[in-house]
Amino acid sequence: MTYRLIALDVDGTLLNDHHELSEANKKSIQQAAKNGAEFVLCTGRGPVNTIPIMEGMGLGGYVITHNGAATVDIKSREVVDQFPIQAEELMPYIDYCRDHGIHFDVNTAFGLYVDRADEMTLEVRSMYEAVFLTPLDLPVWADLREPVVKFSAFGSLEAMDALEKEWRTWNSPFYMVRSGDFFLDLMHKDASKGAALQRLAEKRGYRPEEVLAMGNYYNDITMLTYAGKGIAMDNSPVEVKAAADEITLSNNDSGVHHALVKHVVNV
């Protein structure tokens, strides 16, 4: 099968645990693109720290960001597709986080906002610095220049497990998904990586069987099951592996490269 659109998760998939792109991954992606494949990064990140990865590989096209909530044209920086949420409906979640000392951020397509940015703990500040982000102070809703697309809570694995268990009991208007051990995200009920990938594929004229997707976490399951070929990384939880068609090597062993060599580059 010829795969014409290749969707890659970023953290835990394309990049290693130090947020680095291996030379093997880069070269195989560039070769596949040279052979005619179109790449799209599908990530929980925003476009601000996703587009530079594509540009560093010499690629254009699109990035699907915020777990599918905003798709952005790399060249023009235009938001070509998004799933806005009603910001006011986040208030019970914001109040809960404030009452329980849980860090959170509010995301527009290009903006990242937190409570009192200058008072962030070293742990929280280091988390943002690791992925090259600088949060701003959360303004009143009326002052946001873009629609809100994602809300994220951040904490220890135990804290996020407990938070997810609690919020699952709420009558929530949002799609809730774990994008990592330490993150719990809320988005529009129709938003997901799979939904955004499907909309982009249809826009680009690709059939599902022409789409190959790779990911490693729960927020990747929808795109792995949409794609004609869904590949999970070896560092994925068992539920993610079960949703995939096959498993490649881990993100620390250039699993993306090995999958591309098997299915795209040498075909």
For the sheet with most strands, the description reads: 8 strands, mixed
Helicity, as a percent range: 25-40%
What is the assembly state of the chains in this entry? Answer: single chain
Number of domains: 2
Q: What would you call the structural class?
A: alpha/beta
CATH class of the largest domain: Alpha Beta
- SSE order: EHEHEEEHEEHEEHEEHEHEHEH
Q: What Rg is obtained from the alpha carbons, in whole angstroms?
A: 18 Å
Query: What is the count of β-strands?
Result: 14
Q: Based on the coordinates given, report the CATH architecture of the largest domain.
A: 3-Layer(aba) Sandwich
Number of helices: 9
CATH superfamily of the largest domain: HAD superfamily/HAD-like
Proportion of beta-strand residues: 15-25%
Average pLDDT figure: 96
Which stretches are low in confidence, meaning pLDDT under 50 for 5 or more residues running?
Answer: none
Overall geometry: globular
Q: Taking strands numbered 1, 2, ... along the chain, how are they ordered across the largest sheet? A: 5-4-3-2-1-12-13-14
| C-alpha termini separation | 9 Å
CATH fold-level assignment of the largest domain: Rossmann fold
Protein name: Cof-type HAD-IIB family hydrolase
Keywords: Hydrolase
GO molecular function: hydrolase activity
Enzyme class: hydrolase
